Amino acid sequence: MKTNEDSKLAYVLLSPVLLYLLAVMVLPFGWAVYLSFTNKAVGTPATFIGLKNYIDLMKDSLFWKVAWNTVLFTIVAVIGKTVFGMVMALVLNEKIVCRNLFRVLLFLPWTIPTIVSVFTWQWIYSDVGGVLNYILMNTGILDHQVGWLATPNLAMFSVILVNVWRGIPFMGIAILAGLQTISKEMYEAAMLDGAGAIKRFVYMTLPSVKEVTILAAVMTTIWTLNDFEIIWLLTRGGPSNGTQVLSTLSYTTGFLNLSLGKAIAIAIITMPPLILLINYVTKRSLSSNE
Q1: β-strand partners of 38
Q2: Which of 61, 86, 261, 262 is most buried, judged by most C-beta within 10 A?
Q3: Which pTM value belongs to this model?
Q4: Is the N-terminal amide bond of 239 cis, ω within 30° of 0?
Q5: What percent of the chain has a predicted confidence (pLDDT) above 70?
């Protein structure tokens, strides 16, 4: 049975960590929440204005357009990463020639610095000497140059493609780890019973990797919701706010329009879904360790 002395010792041992969390997380977050209720701008003192920033955002059509862009960007990107990550894991789980080499090559997008990969994609998408237009025109698929980042719909497709390309390796690694826990004897028995590849995938593979796939997809959703670098470096939210998401809108509002109070309010609005997702990941992780 725990005694009061044990509890006191536990608090003493935890106190450095608690003080650290208070200093680097709780106090800055509390200050940020306070600033979201002010008209704080760069170079001017903050004046308390209550919920005005939040009310203005709710009335702003641009905010709702950006919110929709964020939802669209996140859902499509996460689905793409999950589907292609599953395909990648299934292929790399088979006995193929140079399997280890392919694993290394397919994991590279996740290891390359974001700025390097984004600048490479800028060159690929370029309507002047871009690799993608060159290939499509020389294969007869296109008969003219396409501005992949010049129109809202194409630009959104393009940034989603880069996000998916960069995130596939993580999903592939997670699902591959789950696949390698499946007994080979189970597959052999199913094959002897006449189960085809589709039935084995639906009734054996998917149930076996369901938990790890869901957990990895939720973690990917958190990262995708917070994605800033890819969109900012490729399009800066343009054209015509076609690829603007909440993270880039918050940056633009705070550092370009110098309205820090409203920028922080935008960031705080994104927190409830993130908190729910993080809580889900934490609970699933802890329950799997019990």
Answers
A1: 48
A2: 262
A3: 0.87
A4: yes
A5: 95
